[in-house]
Design a protein that fits this description.
InterPro entries: HGSNAT_cat (IPR012429). Pfam families: HGSNAT_cat. It contains 15 helices and four strands. The N and C termini lie close together (5 Å).
């Protein structure tokens, strides 16, 4: 990871690095939208008690979609938009592609390695470590989506999205599951679960042990999510009337959302399986969200309220990684209490939160504290123009 005082795209290699061209201004609305998404990630990932969470802050039990289920696909959509902005210069210079692809792969593998470090820390038990994960999926999706953007045109990208979504639907709904029989979408007996358990036995999500929400097969439609962002990014970069760009982005957002809801009738919206209907539904909502941010922030110029989200957006991976690391460190620090030894997180939570709030509000208050804690740190980094790039 490197630190820079010059604003650059947060995930992909910048066009400046690839081509030596003059730096381009960041799209403020994209940074803000990314910041809102990462802030939401921290909110839902850090409750005071996992048993006391308000329903909108929980993932759907299986089929269906809660506000929490929008967070990860929104981030992958944003990765796609960022790719379109960061690599458009390099795309026009074929002789730079080999070098650019090398940087893409290096950055994707760095994200994967950061995810593996979080999975291993602090025990570093390689025999049971979970190999899939959020950062791991982001790394893999980034590599594939960035290379596809670099080497193909929009028509081909649309065809790839269609192939991934339709192909995944066919595989999941019609291919028999070895050792099980007829295809199904049940948690432990669907084809994606079978593949995870076959290729990564003992290295899956500890809550299930036999399948993983960031598993192997479901990563393919996740690539389609990023590619919808790539298409949206290319559309926003067009030299066209801003109102026209926003209008069509909104139109396609509505179309994709509706198509997802219709497909849900046969291939249910499901975050854990990352179903094709889920891709269309969440990508459509992401288009609507980005279109709204773009209109309010970059077109109408209402920017004062955006700084709290902007500070999250420009250092998104940094805060996501550290917000996962610090609780693990807190779990290693023990505090003696009259009831016995507890970790520092439990001590702080029970001392200052559960005694002051109702159980659900205490859990929410703890998560909000994390948000404000990181906001202070990120605000200082932003004021000093410190952006840590992977």
């Amino acid at each position: 990871m490197t630190t820079t005082s010059t604003p650059q795209p947060n995930l992909p290699t910048s066009a400046t690095e690839a081509t030596g061209a003059a730096p381009r201004l960041r799209l403020r609305s994209l940074d803000v939208f990314r910041g809102i998404t990462v802030l939401a990630m921290i909110l839902v990932n850090n409750p005071g008690s996992w048993g006391k969470i308000y329903a909108p802050l929980r993932h759907a039990a299986w089929h269906g979609c809660t506000p929490t289920d929008l967070v990860f696909p929104f981030f992958l959509f944003i990765v796609g938009v960022s790719i379109a902005y960061a690599f458009s210069g390099a795309k026009q210079i074929p002789e730079s592609h080999t070098k650019t692809i090398g940087r893409i792969i290096r950055r994707g593998l760095t994200l994967f390695a950061l995810g593996m470090f979080l999975a291993l820390f602090p025990k570093f038990d390689f025999e049971t470590v979970r190999i899939p994960g959020v950062l791991q999926r982001i790394g893999v999706v980034f590599i594939l989506a960035a290379i596809i953007f670099l080497k193909t045109e929009k028509r081909t990208q649309i065809m790839i999205i269609a192939f991934l979504l339709i192909g995944y639907w066919v595989v999941m709904m019609f291919v028999p599951v070895p050792g099980i029989g007829v295809s199904n979408l049940l948690p432990t007996t669907n084809l994606a679960a079978w593949l995870d358990n076959t290729l990564l036995p003992g290295h899956l999500w500890k809550s299930t042990k036999v399948w993983d929400p960031e598993g192997i097969l479901s990563t393919l439609p996740a690539v389609a999510t990023a590619l919808t962002g790539v298409l949206a990014g290319q559309w926003l970069k067009k030299k066209d009337d801003m109102g026209n760009k926003i209008a069509w982005l909104m139109v396609w957002g509505v179309i994709c959302t509706c198509l997802g809801l219709v497909w849900d009738l046969h291939f249910p919206i499901n975050k854990s399986l990352w179903t094709s209907s889920y891709v269309l539904y969440t990508s459509g909502l992401a288009m609507l969200g980005l279109g709204l941010c773009y209109w309010v922030i970059d077109v109408k110029g209402y920017q004062r309220f955006t700084t709290p989200f902007l500070v999250y957006g420009v250092n998104a991976i940094t805060v996501f990684f550290l917000s996962g690391l610090i609780p693990r460190i807190m779990g290693m620090i023990k505090v003696d209490t009259p009831a016995g030894e507890v970790d520092s997180k439990t001590y702080l939570y029970e001392t200052f939160y559960t005694s002051s709030f109702s159980p659900y509000n205490a859990s929410l208050a703890w998560a909000l504290t994390w948000i404000f804690f990181w906001m202070v740190i990120l605000w200082i980094m932003y004021k000093k123009n410190i952006i840590i790039k992977v």
